[in-house]
Write a structure and sequence with these properties.
Helix content is 45%, strand content 6%. By secondary structure, the protein is mostly helical. It has a three-stranded antiparallel sheet. Strand 1 and strand 2 form a beta hairpin. Helix 4 crosses helix 8.
Length: 266
Amino acid sequence: MRTSGYGPALRMAHIKAGLRALVWSEMGRLGQLRKGLIQKSMVDGEKGLVRNPIRWFHMQTLREAWRGDGDRGCMLWAAACMCFFGCLRAGEALAPEFGEFDAKAHLAWEDVMLERAASPKCIGLRIKESKTDRQRAGAMVTLHRTGTDICPVESVLRFMVTRGAGPGPFFTDREGVGLTRRVFVEEVRKALAKKGASVEGISGHSFRIGAATAAAESGATAEEVKALWRWKSGAYSGYVRREERGQTSAGKKWTRAIKEGCSSQD
């Protein structure tokens, strides 16, 4: 039984109709049935649920692809680094796909906090709502410097300079247009394909999967990876992929930065 697509479609219909977004954990037996079907489909390898991770070489490819793309490239690269090193779902960092921006739910300028004004060592993110946090309890995520040319702190700082303080989604261009998950994933896939990289299974979850995989491969414990993902169950193990190629010295520094994020999660 194919399960992918129906839940998101139903949720989208609710949002478009102006209704409260579905909270599966509050739907009793129906929510439990959905959870069981998803877990079974992951074990069975259902084609519709295949999501591949963003790996080190993907990040290098994206950096090269967007380096000369001006302010837009700067925004896309900052979003990629934030999602990867923050182990975020793309939707947690980007503008809403449907409906209007809500400062109480979506990432805004004031939710990105520097450890200090001059040369900060890390950046804090206040994630106010997520797929598994419909009650808006919130969570703090920390981005750390990597000491390499692929660094979430540096990329986000550069974008903040080009964006400037102001209302609306954090990832907003100079015309005031917010970067949505759909547009971001399209740009990622286009940039990778242009450089000859495979885009099969690349989605808004790919950065999160890649970060969890990198942390696990670098020696993070199951509890640390679960903290990184902000998950209470052991379902994360279905998303961890084993790296097929060796890491570079830069890659090892990136995994250390991700592991530091593990230990600093709330």
